Amino acid sequence: MLSTPPVHPRRKVAIVGTALSDCGRVDDATPYALHAQAARRALADSGLDRSVIDGFASAGLGTLAPAEVAEYLGLRPTWVDSTSVGGSTWEVMAAHAADAIAAGHANAVLLVYGSTARADIKARRRTANLSFGARGPLQFEVPYGHTLVAKYAMAARRHMHEYGTTLEQLAEVAVQARANAATNPDAMFRDPVTVDDVLSGPVIADPFTKLHCCVRSDGGCAVLMVAQEYVPDAAKEPVWVLGAGTAVSHTTMSEWEDFTVSPAAASGRLAFERAGVRPADIDLAEIYDAFTYMTLVTLEDLGFCEKGAGGAFIEKGRLLRDGGLPVNTDGGGLSACHPGMRGLFLLAEAVRQLRGEAGEGQVRKRNGRLPELAVASGTGGWFCSSGTVVLGRG
Protein backbone atom coordinates (compact mmCIF):
# COMPACT_ATOMS: atom_id res chain seq x y z
CA MET A 1 0.00 0.00 0.00
CA LEU A 2 1.36 3.40 -0.96
CA SER A 3 2.02 5.76 1.89
CA THR A 4 0.49 9.23 1.86
CA PRO A 5 3.12 11.76 0.75
CA PRO A 6 3.89 14.51 3.24
CA VAL A 7 2.08 17.79 2.71
CA HIS A 8 4.44 20.74 2.59
CA PRO A 9 3.13 24.24 3.27
CA ARG A 10 3.06 26.48 0.21
CA ARG A 11 5.69 29.19 0.38
CA LYS A 12 4.84 32.83 -0.12
CA VAL A 13 6.23 34.39 -3.29
CA ALA A 14 7.56 37.91 -3.70
CA ILE A 15 8.99 40.12 -6.43
CA VAL A 16 12.25 41.55 -5.09
CA GLY A 17 13.90 42.87 -8.23
CA THR A 18 12.72 44.59 -11.37
CA ALA A 19 14.25 46.82 -14.02
CA LEU A 20 13.99 48.04 -17.59
CA SER A 21 16.77 48.05 -20.13
CA ASP A 22 17.28 51.10 -22.30
CA CYS A 23 13.94 51.65 -24.00
CA GLY A 24 12.35 53.71 -26.75
CA ARG A 25 14.79 54.27 -29.58
CA VAL A 26 17.74 51.90 -29.23
CA ASP A 27 19.60 51.54 -32.52
CA ASP A 28 22.88 50.08 -31.27
CA ALA A 29 21.88 46.97 -29.29
CA THR A 30 20.73 43.44 -30.05
CA PRO A 31 17.72 41.84 -28.37
CA TYR A 32 20.14 39.62 -26.45
CA ALA A 33 21.95 42.68 -25.14
CA LEU A 34 18.67 44.20 -23.95
CA HIS A 35 17.82 40.95 -22.16
CA ALA A 36 21.19 41.04 -20.43
CA GLN A 37 20.98 44.71 -19.51
CA ALA A 38 17.52 44.33 -17.97
CA ALA A 39 18.56 41.16 -16.12
CA ARG A 40 21.68 42.75 -14.63
CA ARG A 41 19.72 45.78 -13.50
CA ALA A 42 16.94 43.69 -11.95
CA LEU A 43 19.45 41.55 -10.08
CA ALA A 44 21.21 44.67 -8.81
CA ASP A 45 17.82 46.06 -7.76
CA SER A 46 17.18 42.92 -5.72
CA GLY A 47 20.51 42.98 -3.90
CA LEU A 48 20.76 39.20 -4.29
CA ASP A 49 23.57 37.22 -5.87
CA ARG A 50 22.95 35.65 -9.26
CA SER A 51 23.74 32.24 -7.76
CA VAL A 52 20.27 32.15 -6.18
CA ILE A 53 18.60 31.97 -9.61
CA ASP A 54 17.49 28.42 -10.37
CA GLY A 55 14.48 29.25 -12.55
CA PHE A 56 14.28 31.10 -15.83
CA ALA A 57 11.41 32.21 -18.06
CA SER A 58 11.76 33.73 -21.53
CA ALA A 59 9.89 33.78 -24.82
CA GLY A 60 10.10 35.46 -28.20
CA LEU A 61 13.82 35.12 -28.91
CA GLY A 62 15.99 32.29 -30.13
CA THR A 63 15.32 28.94 -31.74
CA LEU A 64 15.35 27.12 -28.43
CA ALA A 65 13.93 29.75 -26.09
CA PRO A 66 14.60 30.03 -23.20
CA ALA A 67 17.74 27.88 -23.47
CA GLU A 68 19.53 30.31 -25.79
CA VAL A 69 18.83 33.35 -23.67
CA ALA A 70 19.76 31.55 -20.44
CA GLU A 71 23.06 30.53 -22.04
CA TYR A 72 23.69 34.11 -23.14
CA LEU A 73 23.14 35.25 -19.55
CA GLY A 74 25.39 32.52 -18.16
CA LEU A 75 22.58 30.76 -16.30
CA ARG A 76 21.95 27.03 -15.90
CA PRO A 77 18.40 26.87 -14.54
CA THR A 78 16.73 23.70 -13.29
CA TRP A 79 13.22 25.12 -13.86
CA VAL A 80 12.29 26.80 -17.13
CA ASP A 81 9.23 28.20 -18.87
CA SER A 82 8.90 29.19 -22.52
CA THR A 83 5.13 29.64 -22.65
CA SER A 84 4.29 31.86 -25.59
CA VAL A 85 0.78 33.31 -25.72
CA GLY A 86 1.52 36.79 -27.01
CA GLY A 87 1.37 39.85 -24.80
CA SER A 88 -0.05 37.95 -21.84
CA THR A 89 2.96 35.62 -21.82
CA TRP A 90 4.57 37.33 -18.86
CA GLU A 91 1.56 37.30 -16.57
CA VAL A 92 1.04 33.62 -17.44
CA MET A 93 4.72 32.94 -16.77
CA ALA A 94 4.49 34.82 -13.47
CA ALA A 95 1.57 32.59 -12.48
CA HIS A 96 3.57 29.49 -13.40
CA ALA A 97 6.64 30.74 -11.56
CA ALA A 98 4.63 31.58 -8.45
CA ASP A 99 3.17 28.07 -8.38
CA ALA A 100 6.60 26.50 -8.89
CA ILE A 101 8.18 28.54 -6.11
CA ALA A 102 5.27 27.97 -3.75
CA ALA A 103 5.54 24.21 -4.34
CA GLY A 104 9.32 24.15 -3.85
CA HIS A 105 10.18 23.34 -7.46
CA ALA A 106 12.20 26.54 -7.77
CA ASN A 107 13.53 29.16 -5.38
CA ALA A 108 14.23 32.21 -7.53
CA VAL A 109 12.85 32.68 -11.04
CA LEU A 110 14.06 35.37 -13.41
CA LEU A 111 11.60 36.55 -16.08
CA VAL A 112 13.25 38.45 -18.94
CA TYR A 113 12.21 40.02 -22.24
CA GLY A 114 13.93 42.17 -24.83
CA SER A 115 13.15 43.30 -28.37
CA THR A 116 14.45 45.65 -31.04
CA ALA A 117 11.16 45.67 -32.93
CA ARG A 118 11.43 49.34 -33.84
CA ALA A 119 15.12 49.32 -34.76
CA ASP A 120 14.70 46.23 -36.92
CA ILE A 121 12.06 47.94 -39.05
CA LYS A 122 14.11 51.11 -39.30
CA ALA A 123 17.14 49.11 -40.46
CA ARG A 124 14.92 47.05 -42.81
CA ARG A 125 15.82 43.81 -41.05
CA ARG A 126 12.09 43.06 -40.93
CA THR A 127 8.76 44.58 -41.93
CA ALA A 128 5.67 45.28 -39.88
CA ASN A 129 3.57 42.24 -39.01
CA LEU A 130 0.57 41.96 -41.30
CA SER A 131 -0.44 38.53 -40.01
CA PHE A 132 0.73 35.72 -37.77
CA GLY A 133 1.00 33.28 -40.66
CA ALA A 134 -1.35 31.36 -42.90
CA ARG A 135 -1.23 27.84 -41.50
CA GLY A 136 -3.74 25.97 -39.41
CA PRO A 137 -7.02 27.70 -38.54
CA LEU A 138 -5.64 31.10 -39.60
CA GLN A 139 -5.67 30.01 -43.26
CA PHE A 140 -9.39 30.75 -43.31
CA GLU A 141 -8.90 34.42 -42.38
CA VAL A 142 -5.59 35.49 -43.92
CA PRO A 143 -6.84 35.54 -47.57
CA TYR A 144 -9.28 38.29 -46.62
CA GLY A 145 -6.55 40.60 -45.32
CA HIS A 146 -7.70 40.32 -41.74
CA THR A 147 -4.67 41.85 -40.01
CA LEU A 148 -4.00 41.99 -36.28
CA VAL A 149 -5.21 45.57 -35.93
CA ALA A 150 -8.31 44.75 -37.99
CA LYS A 151 -9.29 42.05 -35.51
CA TYR A 152 -9.16 44.51 -32.62
CA ALA A 153 -10.98 47.13 -34.68
CA MET A 154 -13.79 44.69 -35.47
CA ALA A 155 -14.19 43.90 -31.77
CA ALA A 156 -14.27 47.60 -30.91
CA ARG A 157 -16.98 48.23 -33.50
CA ARG A 158 -19.07 45.44 -31.99
CA HIS A 159 -18.81 47.01 -28.54
CA MET A 160 -19.85 50.35 -30.01
CA HIS A 161 -22.84 48.69 -31.67
CA GLU A 162 -23.92 46.74 -28.59
CA TYR A 163 -23.43 49.38 -25.91
CA GLY A 164 -23.25 52.76 -27.60
CA THR A 165 -19.57 53.24 -26.80
CA THR A 166 -18.32 56.29 -28.65
CA LEU A 167 -15.14 57.18 -30.52
CA GLU A 168 -14.64 60.02 -28.06
CA GLN A 169 -14.70 57.60 -25.14
CA LEU A 170 -12.14 55.34 -26.81
CA ALA A 171 -10.02 58.39 -27.57
CA GLU A 172 -10.05 59.31 -23.87
CA VAL A 173 -8.00 56.18 -23.18
CA ALA A 174 -5.20 57.52 -25.38
CA VAL A 175 -5.49 61.04 -23.97
CA GLN A 176 -5.21 59.88 -20.36
CA ALA A 177 -2.38 57.44 -21.14
CA ARG A 178 -0.42 60.32 -22.65
CA ALA A 179 -1.09 62.47 -19.60
CA ASN A 180 0.32 59.72 -17.38
CA ALA A 181 3.35 59.44 -19.65
CA ALA A 182 4.10 63.13 -19.10
CA THR A 183 5.55 62.35 -15.67
CA ASN A 184 7.57 59.34 -16.88
CA PRO A 185 11.01 60.46 -18.10
CA ASP A 186 11.46 57.12 -19.88
CA ALA A 187 8.24 57.39 -21.90
CA MET A 188 8.66 57.54 -25.66
CA PHE A 189 5.98 60.24 -26.10
CA ARG A 190 5.18 62.79 -23.39
CA ASP A 191 3.54 65.75 -25.13
CA PRO A 192 -0.19 66.04 -24.36
CA VAL A 193 -2.84 65.07 -26.90
CA THR A 194 -6.53 65.87 -27.06
CA VAL A 195 -9.57 63.88 -28.09
CA ASP A 196 -9.62 65.88 -31.33
CA ASP A 197 -5.98 64.97 -31.96
CA VAL A 198 -6.86 61.29 -31.65
CA LEU A 199 -9.96 61.49 -33.82
CA SER A 200 -8.36 63.54 -36.59
CA GLY A 201 -5.36 61.27 -37.11
CA PRO A 202 -4.87 58.94 -40.07
CA VAL A 203 -7.12 55.87 -40.01
CA ILE A 204 -5.26 52.59 -39.44
CA ALA A 205 -8.27 50.25 -39.23
CA ASP A 206 -11.75 51.67 -38.70
CA PRO A 207 -12.47 52.93 -36.04
CA PHE A 208 -8.82 53.19 -34.96
CA THR A 209 -6.69 56.14 -35.96
CA LYS A 210 -2.96 56.22 -35.32
CA LEU A 211 -3.23 57.40 -31.71
CA HIS A 212 -5.65 54.58 -30.89
CA CYS A 213 -2.72 52.23 -31.54
CA CYS A 214 0.36 51.50 -29.47
CA VAL A 215 3.78 52.90 -30.22
CA ARG A 216 6.49 50.68 -31.67
CA SER A 217 9.62 50.78 -29.56
CA ASP A 218 12.72 48.90 -28.54
CA GLY A 219 13.32 47.78 -24.98
CA GLY A 220 13.65 45.06 -22.40
CA CYS A 221 12.46 44.26 -18.91
CA ALA A 222 13.26 41.78 -16.14
CA VAL A 223 11.52 40.68 -12.95
CA LEU A 224 12.97 38.47 -10.20
CA MET A 225 10.51 36.36 -8.19
CA VAL A 226 11.70 34.54 -5.07
CA ALA A 227 10.53 32.37 -2.19
CA GLN A 228 9.84 34.07 1.12
CA GLU A 229 13.10 32.80 2.64
CA TYR A 230 15.08 35.08 0.34
CA VAL A 231 13.18 38.24 1.21
CA PRO A 232 15.22 39.17 4.33
CA ASP A 233 18.38 39.29 2.18
CA ALA A 234 16.81 41.47 -0.50
CA ALA A 235 17.72 45.13 -0.79
CA LYS A 236 14.16 46.47 -0.82
CA GLU A 237 10.75 45.76 0.61
CA PRO A 238 9.03 42.87 -1.19
CA VAL A 239 5.97 43.06 -3.36
CA TRP A 240 3.99 39.89 -2.77
CA VAL A 241 2.23 37.83 -5.42
CA LEU A 242 -1.21 37.40 -3.87
CA GLY A 243 -3.03 35.59 -6.65
CA ALA A 244 -2.99 34.90 -10.37
CA GLY A 245 -5.26 33.53 -13.06
CA THR A 246 -4.87 32.55 -16.71
CA ALA A 247 -7.30 31.86 -19.54
CA VAL A 248 -7.44 31.31 -23.30
CA SER A 249 -10.32 32.13 -25.59
CA HIS A 250 -9.93 31.56 -29.34
CA THR A 251 -7.63 31.77 -32.35
CA THR A 252 -10.04 32.32 -35.21
CA MET A 253 -12.53 35.14 -34.91
CA SER A 254 -15.38 32.82 -35.87
CA GLU A 255 -14.78 30.85 -32.66
CA TRP A 256 -14.97 33.93 -30.43
CA GLU A 257 -18.42 33.75 -28.91
CA ASP A 258 -18.70 37.42 -27.92
CA PHE A 259 -16.44 40.18 -29.28
CA THR A 260 -17.30 42.33 -26.25
CA VAL A 261 -15.89 39.86 -23.69
CA SER A 262 -12.16 39.19 -23.33
CA PRO A 263 -10.53 36.23 -21.54
CA ALA A 264 -9.66 38.68 -18.73
CA ALA A 265 -13.20 37.97 -17.51
CA ALA A 266 -11.96 34.50 -16.53
CA SER A 267 -8.36 35.24 -15.56
CA GLY A 268 -9.37 38.26 -13.49
CA ARG A 269 -12.05 36.38 -11.58
CA LEU A 270 -9.58 33.63 -10.72
CA ALA A 271 -6.84 36.06 -9.72
CA PHE A 272 -9.09 38.08 -7.40
CA GLU A 273 -10.57 34.94 -5.83
CA ARG A 274 -7.14 33.46 -5.17
CA ALA A 275 -5.86 36.73 -3.76
CA GLY A 276 -8.91 37.11 -1.53
CA VAL A 277 -9.61 40.66 -2.73
CA ARG A 278 -12.22 42.45 -4.81
CA PRO A 279 -11.79 44.84 -7.73
CA ALA A 280 -12.96 47.64 -5.41
CA ASP A 281 -9.91 47.01 -3.20
CA ILE A 282 -7.41 47.67 -6.01
CA ASP A 283 -5.47 50.95 -5.93
CA LEU A 284 -4.11 50.89 -9.48
CA ALA A 285 -4.23 48.75 -12.61
CA GLU A 286 -1.65 48.05 -15.30
CA ILE A 287 -3.50 46.81 -18.38
CA TYR A 288 -2.24 45.71 -21.77
CA ASP A 289 -3.08 48.49 -24.21
CA ALA A 290 -1.93 47.75 -27.72
CA PHE A 291 -5.18 49.51 -28.71
CA THR A 292 -7.53 51.76 -26.79
CA TYR A 293 -10.36 49.23 -26.87
CA MET A 294 -8.22 46.74 -24.93
CA THR A 295 -8.10 49.04 -21.93
CA LEU A 296 -11.84 49.69 -22.00
CA VAL A 297 -13.01 46.10 -22.32
CA THR A 298 -10.43 44.75 -19.84
CA LEU A 299 -11.62 47.22 -17.21
CA GLU A 300 -15.12 45.84 -17.69
CA ASP A 301 -14.02 42.22 -17.62
CA LEU A 302 -11.91 42.65 -14.49
CA GLY A 303 -15.02 43.93 -12.75
CA PHE A 304 -14.15 47.59 -12.30
CA CYS A 305 -17.44 48.49 -13.97
CA GLU A 306 -20.43 46.74 -15.49
CA LYS A 307 -20.27 45.23 -18.97
CA GLY A 308 -21.00 47.96 -21.49
CA ALA A 309 -20.24 50.76 -19.03
CA GLY A 310 -16.53 51.03 -19.87
CA GLY A 311 -16.97 54.12 -22.01
CA ALA A 312 -18.65 56.09 -19.25
CA PHE A 313 -16.22 54.70 -16.65
CA ILE A 314 -13.11 56.15 -18.31
CA GLU A 315 -14.51 59.63 -18.77
CA LYS A 316 -13.62 62.62 -16.59
CA GLY A 317 -10.02 61.55 -16.04
CA ARG A 318 -10.69 58.39 -14.05
CA LEU A 319 -7.58 56.63 -15.47
CA LEU A 320 -5.17 59.45 -14.62
CA ARG A 321 -2.50 59.05 -11.98
CA ASP A 322 -4.67 61.04 -9.55
CA GLY A 323 -7.96 59.69 -10.91
CA GLY A 324 -10.44 57.27 -9.39
CA LEU A 325 -8.55 54.23 -10.72
CA PRO A 326 -5.06 55.04 -12.01
CA VAL A 327 -4.43 52.89 -15.09
CA ASN A 328 -1.17 52.42 -17.00
CA THR A 329 0.60 54.90 -14.81
CA ASP A 330 3.78 54.94 -16.93
CA GLY A 331 1.87 55.87 -20.08
CA GLY A 332 1.29 52.31 -21.21
CA GLY A 333 1.87 50.88 -24.64
CA LEU A 334 0.02 53.82 -26.14
CA SER A 335 2.68 56.32 -25.05
CA ALA A 336 5.53 54.85 -22.96
CA CYS A 337 6.87 51.79 -24.78
CA HIS A 338 5.70 48.71 -26.64
CA PRO A 339 8.56 46.55 -27.90
CA GLY A 340 6.52 43.73 -29.40
CA MET A 341 5.20 42.09 -26.22
CA ARG A 342 4.59 44.38 -23.25
CA GLY A 343 3.27 42.08 -20.53
CA LEU A 344 6.41 42.11 -18.37
CA PHE A 345 6.42 45.92 -18.29
CA LEU A 346 3.00 45.82 -16.60
CA LEU A 347 4.44 43.85 -13.69
CA ALA A 348 7.46 46.13 -13.46
CA GLU A 349 5.36 49.31 -13.32
CA ALA A 350 3.02 47.82 -10.72
CA VAL A 351 6.01 46.96 -8.52
CA ARG A 352 7.50 50.42 -9.01
CA GLN A 353 4.27 52.06 -7.87
CA LEU A 354 3.78 49.81 -4.85
CA ARG A 355 7.35 50.48 -3.75
CA GLY A 356 6.87 54.22 -4.08
CA GLU A 357 9.62 54.58 -6.69
CA ALA A 358 7.69 56.38 -9.43
CA GLY A 359 8.90 59.88 -8.58
CA GLU A 360 6.73 62.59 -10.06
CA GLY A 361 4.41 59.92 -11.43
CA GLN A 362 3.81 58.24 -8.08
CA VAL A 363 0.24 57.21 -7.26
CA ARG A 364 -0.96 58.10 -3.78
CA LYS A 365 -4.12 57.14 -1.95
CA ARG A 366 -6.45 59.86 -0.72
CA ASN A 367 -4.75 59.78 2.68
CA GLY A 368 -1.40 60.40 1.03
CA ARG A 369 -0.14 56.87 1.61
CA LEU A 370 1.37 54.60 -0.99
CA PRO A 371 -0.92 52.18 -2.85
CA GLU A 372 -1.25 48.76 -1.28
CA LEU A 373 -2.81 46.61 -4.02
CA ALA A 374 -2.26 46.53 -7.76
CA VAL A 375 -3.36 44.33 -10.62
CA ALA A 376 -1.46 43.60 -13.83
CA SER A 377 -3.50 42.08 -16.65
CA GLY A 378 -1.93 41.07 -19.94
CA THR A 379 -3.67 40.18 -23.20
CA GLY A 380 -2.23 38.03 -25.98
CA GLY A 381 -2.99 37.73 -29.66
CA TRP A 382 -6.31 39.34 -30.51
CA PHE A 383 -7.88 38.65 -27.12
CA CYS A 384 -6.79 35.03 -27.52
CA SER A 385 -5.29 34.73 -24.03
CA SER A 386 -5.12 36.55 -20.73
CA GLY A 387 -3.08 36.47 -17.56
CA THR A 388 -3.93 38.51 -14.46
CA VAL A 389 -1.74 38.93 -11.37
CA VAL A 390 -2.69 40.64 -8.10
CA LEU A 391 0.23 42.18 -6.20
CA GLY A 392 0.38 43.57 -2.68
CA ARG A 393 2.75 45.54 -0.52
CA GLY A 394 3.65 44.73 3.08
From TrEMBL:
InterPro entries: Thiolase, Thiolase-like, Thiolase_C_2. Residues 245-393 form the Thiolase C-terminal domain. PANTHER family: ACETYL-COA C-ACETYLTRANSFERASE, NON-SPECIFIC LIPID-TRANSFER PROTEIN-LIKE 2. This is Acetyl-CoA acetyltransferase. It comes from Streptomyces flavidovirens.
